[in-house]
Design brief:
Number of strands: 10
Radius of gyration: 19 Å
Strand content: 15-25%
Number of helices: 9
Organism: Streptomyces siamensis
Number of domains: 1
Largest sheet: 6 strands, parallel
Shape: globular
CATH architecture: 3-Layer(aba) Sandwich
Protein name: NAD(P)H-binding protein
Strand order of the largest sheet: 2-1-3-4-5-8
Pfam family, one: NAD_binding_10
Structural class: alpha/beta
Helix content: 25-40%
Order of helices and strands: EHEHEHEHEHEEHEEHEHH
Length: 250
């Protein structure tokens, strides 16, 4: 039986990866800052991390924070994984980290490079944004009386459960390097996604497209964060909304 450590194992993605692997009968350890017996802050490292990795065959690295610290956390994890003779490190990244000059994306790209140069067997999967994040962003924007949208920007949201299935499968295979990106089933303009969100939540808001400035906005406008050639996801944004809110009728 394979022993697998899932970092960020209580998060949106990590908890689903953990559930998939346990359902298949694998010994899965969950590492997060507040979950015993492997309550570890990866940014600090320490003896707790060594204990969490003892006897582990594979690590699925889902822990991440837009607030910073990902590179330091990865350095601690890689050093401890080497010490523990871990055979496979699987990492979830984001489509466009090498194109979109957003600070969080740059940090994810830097972690990719750390893993590639780690000397460990590794697999990296890049996915487009989860439905959950798109809904969260639209929910924040909809708090205003007018819903302001980035003009000319599209997205390709993917169902997080499908990404969890893919990560779980990759963790049970041999190290595969950088695998094909995983995108949602549709490239959708933000206005289309906003319309779907407002219908599902029963809200009415005027939609106003706003042109922004800067390299990051240009990269999003040109689709640097999209994977139209890898639209392998099945679940649509409307199906996501129906499952969580129950109102997607026109």
């Amino acid at each position: 039986m394979t022993t697998i450590l899932v970092t960020g194992g209580t998060g949106t993605l990590g908890r689903l990866v953990t559930a998939r692997l346990r359902a298949d009968g694998h010994d899965v350890r969950v590492l997060s800052r507040h979950t015993e017996p492997y309550a570890v802050d990866l940014r600090e490292g320490g003896a707790g991390l060594d204990a969490a990795l003892a006897g582990v065959d594979t690590v699925v690295h889902c822990a991440s924070s837009p607030r910073g610290g990902d590179e330091r956390a990865a350095a601690h994890l890689i050093a401890a994984a080497r010490k523990a003779a871990v055979s496979h490190l699987v990492y979830i990244s984001i489509v466009g980290v090498d194109v979109v000059p957003l600070g969080y994306y740059r940090a994810k790209l830097a972690v990719e490079k750390q893993i590639e140069e780690s000397g460990l067997g590794w697999t990296i999967l890049r996915a487009t944004q989860f439905h959950d994040l798109v809904a969260q962003v639209l929910g924040s924007l909809a708090k205003m009386p007018v819903l302001l949208l980035p003009a000319g920007v599209s997205d390709q949201p993917v169902e997080v459960a499908e990404v969890a299935d893919r990560l779980a499968a990759l963790s049970l295979g041999a190290p595969a390097g950088r695998v094909d990106d995983m995108g949602g089933p549709e490239v959708r303009g933000f206005r289309s996604l906003a319309d779907a969100y407002l219908r599902a939540t029963g809200r009415r808001r005027p939609l106003v497209d706003v042109r922004l400035a800067g390299k990051t906005y240009r990269a999003f406008r040109t689709g640097g964060h999209l994977a139209p050639d890898h639209a392998v996801g099945k679940g649509t944004f409307e199906e996501y909304l129906e499952a969580r809110i129950g109102r997607t009728e026109s």
